[in-house]
Amino acid sequence: MVETALSKPVVRLTRRLDASPELVFDAWTDPQMVRQWLVPGEMVMAALELDLRVGGRFDFVMTGEETYAHKCVYREIERPRRLVFTWSSSATAGRDTLVTVEIEPLGEGSELTLTHEGFADQAMAALHNGGWTACFEKLVPFVED
């Protein structure tokens, strides 16, 4: 869902998962797991560097019909509940945006909320909303199997 907060578009997605918060957190931070789902549609992850520490880099390249190089820096890491990192690519016009991942225990599963903010305009937010939605379509069965 694309929202507008203080005149800036925001993408916010929430999913209930039949997976523990620890497993969901690992899906965001384990390089082998990240490679499996953090690409929309038929795209593939051509490169990934992940240095899981505050100030560490999280850089990756997605390829398909187009290629997108992403540059990210971890700002907060609170296993298994929260990750915050910057996000920059050609799809953000090289501008840093901010991604917050919150994972709440929910019974034997969890609730995942992703908030991506700092977009220049609605079109940029809509593009990312579509990308994140497609990635979540891969994440859900990946962590629930």
CA gyration radius, whole angstroms: 14 Å
Shape: globular
The CATH class, by name, is: Alpha Beta
**What is the level-2 CATH architecture name?**
2-Layer Sandwich
Structural category is: alpha+beta
Number of domains: 1
Order of helices and strands: EEHHEEEEEEEH
Q: DSSP helix count?
A: 3
The largest sheet has its strands arranged as 1-2-9-8-7-6
**CATH H-level homologous superfamily name:** START domain
The biggest sheet, with number of strands, parallel, antiparallel or mixed sense and barrel status, is: 6 strands, antiparallel
Distance between the termini: 26 Å
Poorly predicted ranges (pLDDT <50, ≥5 residues)? none
Mean pLDDT, nearest integer? 94
- The percent range for helix content is 25-40%
Total DSSP E strands: 9
State which percent range the strand residues make up: 35-45%
Do you know the CATH topology?
Alpha-D-Glucose-1,6-Bisphosphate, Chain A, domain 4
Labels describing this entry:
single chain, 3 helices, alpha+beta, six-stranded antiparallel beta sheet, Alpha-D-Glucose-1,6-Bisphosphate, Chain A, domain 4, globular, three-stranded antiparallel beta sheet, 145 residues, 27% helix, 9 strands
Walk me through what this model shows.
The chain has 145 residues and is α+β, with helices and mostly antiparallel strands. The protein has a single domain, classed as START domain (Alpha-D-Glucose-1,6-Bisphosphate, Chain A, domain 4). The chain contains 3 helices and 9 strands. It has a 6-stranded antiparallel β-sheet, with helices on one face. It has a 3-stranded antiparallel β-sheet with strand order 3-4-5, with helices on one face. α1 packs across α2 (31-37). It is globular and about 40 Å long. The two termini are 26 Å apart. 24% of the residues are buried. The mean pLDDT is 94.
